[in-house]
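Box 3.1. Reading complex inputs
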Amino acid sequence: MSRACAIDIAPHALRLVVWDNGDGPRSQSVALDPHLEAEARREAEVAALKELAQALGAKGPVHAVLDPRVVLERRVYVPVAPDSELPSLARFQSQRAFALPADELTVVWDVGPEEPEGLPMRLTAVRHVDLVPILELVLAAGLKPGRGVLPGEALAHAARAANANGPAVILRGDAHEIDLALIDEKGELVASRGVRLHSSNPTAVIGAVRRGLGALPSQPESLVLFETDPARLGALRQLGDAVEVPEGADPAVLLAVAGADPSFRHRPELDLRGNVVQRAKREQKIRWSALGVAVAVILLLCGLLVERQFAAGRARIAELETEREALAPAVERAKSLAAEIRTAKAWSERRGRELEVLLLLAETLPEDAAYLTRVRWKDEGELLLTGMAKDFATVAAFVNRLEQHPRVRRVTPEGIREPKEKGLRGVTFSARATLNPGGSP
Amino acid sequence: MSPRERRLALITAGVLGIAGLGKYVAAPVVQAWREQGETLAELESTLEGERAMAERLRPLHRERKVWDVQLAPPPGGLVQELITVLTEETRAAGFSPESVDFVGSAPLGNDPDAPYVELRLELDAKVTLTQLQTYLQRLARIERPLRVDQLTVTPPSKGSAKTLEVQLSLVALTTAEGRRGS
């Protein structure tokens, strides 16, 4: 069971170190083509890490050695203050020290022992965009992300592990870059630098290293070289008289070995996943807030739009009601006149109905078989008829014809009997007819 | 609170929020919107009718004046003229009335505020059927608004079987204003 792992992603290779309990570090590397496109490079890295993890049986959290080029380091002095106030001082100082916006950086800090100028604070910053690919690589390989390993801290740890005495400058390099770390007499890191090599010429290497040394806050006499290339070792030895070269250390995996060492102090601690997750949470919070604001604005706009439509509707209703009020007298007068005219016309149309009644009787009374002895008619009322007929059948025929006439609604025969007077023949009858209102259709 | 519980709480709050928003904000707004639309449509429809009615005011005035002229009583008095007309028409139909009586007048439909008044007259006569028909036809043709309201025809108890006893109840229409003036 491995306890810790560390990867070092160099342009030309991906290295994995697994530190097993009691057995020490085991390392392997896979060469990478530095000229690959970004997507192909990423796929190659994932495949390499999977391969290495399987080969070495890596299961623990994977720490990642950060590329010195993406690590920004500043050394400042802050006033002596209680520990509880140091985080806010660090935040303040980091905002001043780094030109990038605070929300784009992961900043860790550490303070050294008090000095006459105040507390020396070492601020180390890494951009989120540089941390995310490392995290994604580890996750894509199916491994658990650990912490970011700062190259200077790893170099100082390697020096301590090699029992190098401080104060000293520690150097580690390969054909492309050289890392420098300044440690104090207790072996604690004071400052670090990364130097890019553009040429393998010893003079150029010495020049580049001297520029790196010049950027450190102090230049102690002692020099610890983690270097195995004899030519470059020979050139670097020219930098000073007190040069120490620890035995048995492979400069290529030195930083990864230090990062995988269970005794390595991640101080200041740069939690790969925590930082990215925190940032993701912050961004998600911002997205949610933006979404909330957008929804609120949309709702507000919708509300305003609806209210505007309502206001337009209310204005239109008020306008119509005003017009209606203005028209009301004329409308009332017109209605009154129309009603009066309708009444007069209806009255006038009732003229001549008595003639219709007489015509109705002439049409329906059986000729030479019946005659009427009394007719009583009232407009919009009933028609009362009394008469004599030859027989019952004649009366029935008369009533039947009356009922079928379109002007008649209903006929009610009231009585049919033989006459009381002797000598009279036939039957007397009486009937009541209800006429349809409104005259002839 | 675990992320799962938080997500569940958020979803529940979202669902409740949407439901609340729908019930207490969206539904009343939609209801108010619909009611306002209906009110507006109803008002526009009513107003359209009222505008048309108001536009008819002038023609109605003219028509009403025509009726006023037709219904106005003559200078000599309406009752006198009606009695004269009825008598003249009986003569023209070939008979003489036994009586022509003015019974009275009443507002049309017994409505005291009615703009018209009906005058009622009764006429009794003994006529043949032909004379009755001629008389009624002539009455229907005269210009004065006059019509038969009741008609009773009975054979006479004595005399010729071809003669009929006729009782007519006639009504004439005039304006209430004109009636008051006469």
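In summary: Chain A has ten helices and 17 strands.
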